[in-house]
User: What shape does this take?
Amino acid sequence: MAQVPQTFFDALAVRTWCGLALESLGRAREEIDAINVYPVADGDTGTNLYLTVESAVAAVEAVFTAYDVGKPSLADAARAMAHGALIGARGNSGTILAQLLRGMAQVLAVDGETAHTDGSGLRVALRRAADSAREAVAHPVEGTVLTVASAAADAAHGAAGDDCGTVARAAYEGARAALAATPGQLAVLERAGVVDAGGRGLLAVLGALVETFTGEAVPVAPGAHTRVASGSNTGGDGAMLPDAEDCADVPEAGGPAFEVIYLLEAEDAAVARLRSRLDGLGDSLVIVGGDGLWNVHVHVDDAGAAVEAGVEAGRPYRIRITHFGAGDAHTTGERLPRERVQRAVVAVVPGEGLAGLYGEAGATTVLARPGEPPASGELVEALRRAHAREIVLLPNDADLRHTAAAAAEQARVEGIRVALIPTRSAVQGIAALAVHEPDRRFDEDVVSMTSAAGATRYAEVAVAERQSWTMAGICQAGDVLGLIDGDVAVIGTDVTVTAESVLDRMLSAGGELVTLVLGDEAPETIAEHLEARVRESYLAVDTVVYRGGRQGALLLIGVE
Assistant: This one.
């Protein structure tokens, strides 16, 4: 069905564009992953772009959901798009795309400037996007997504007409031609016989922009193929897509061993110093953002030094360190595929401490930060990363059940046997992991884990953010809430007293083991107090305590 075109840039156009871009990247993801040879042939550019845009879509949808009547302004939607992409940016390509979207938002999000909603405004936005992305990269390289973005802006500037559809189509055509020429600009692409993967992803995003304003889907036209003809510097008709293995051996040996990514709260001056320091530590340095929040991406040999530099500059968090590993993209010679293990567990966890605990138990983890639940694409990525024939998926959150089900279904389509255990709390996941035995039959293991999770009552102690009605009455902002099995059961003013009341209610029905998971902001003495309470009042009940880190809730409680 043809898309109903938007006539000018408003909040709905932003929403439509983001949605279409996500769909387009979803269709092209595997193709883009397969041609990913620069800057590292790790086969994840398409996935990283998809996850980045998925985060932008979620942020835009949240803005629309917040309006009971009417709709958000263009500025609201554009800022949400940019912020969502920034906090969800993955990899080198996703980080650059986040800056491209931020550059556009800086033009579109000027309140009251109606001139920025037409084709003329789109021209300015595309130019700002290309320039700001180039400025964010420490050492810009031609033949990459930066080249494609600049070509799109140049073509938009020369478009005849001031309607958004005409300008968007000109930008797309300029990007398409530039993409086809990338192998002639970057030797690693020419040797692999492919175009730049990041540029191919940007072409998909620009194609979605054309569809937004014309209602017509834009096919990948001749010259935009991913595989170029032998001995040619341009993409030819009838070109075939490469397998991921075709591109594995192209990069030079001796590159950095780690990819380090983190969000950073810091002032501009501190970021300038950070940029200089990280530039001396490694390569592929991209720092994007502004207004106190930045996304930092770099490839280094000393991951600790890269994180320490962030600590000196401000407050780094959501730190992701990926080891490229032996036989990876930075090495030469034949790349042998890693053998799949028979069975694995993938779990969503709410804090760094629990991620470590689950990891020690052998699980592949997905970190769900407060207010930022993982999207289905992120869960699918984790299921693939587990590299197993059989996988037990633990969402550990009632609100993630449908998201987890969608991810499991996608993995099944790809030939992975996935069992989804509907755990509603991380403490239920801990109980399931405790009885996990990978050597027994899959069905028996799933039944045992499901039974253990179901026999575990769960609770949490948190602070109310606003006044609201609850099962226990009206709470005010700042009240301490005790939730049992998802419902507010206790409203108090003291964290320890509320936690004790919750624990007493749970143990009144019996129990053999109490699990306490402490958040960073929980009182230092609360664990000792609750352990003493259990020893004194409940015979033959054991207590185990874990540190959960920044997990949102002050305390998680499980009773088995």
Notes: Residues 221-225, 227-253, 325-337 have pLDDT under 50 and may be disordered. The longest strand covers residues 282-290. Residues 11-34 form the longest helix (24 residues).
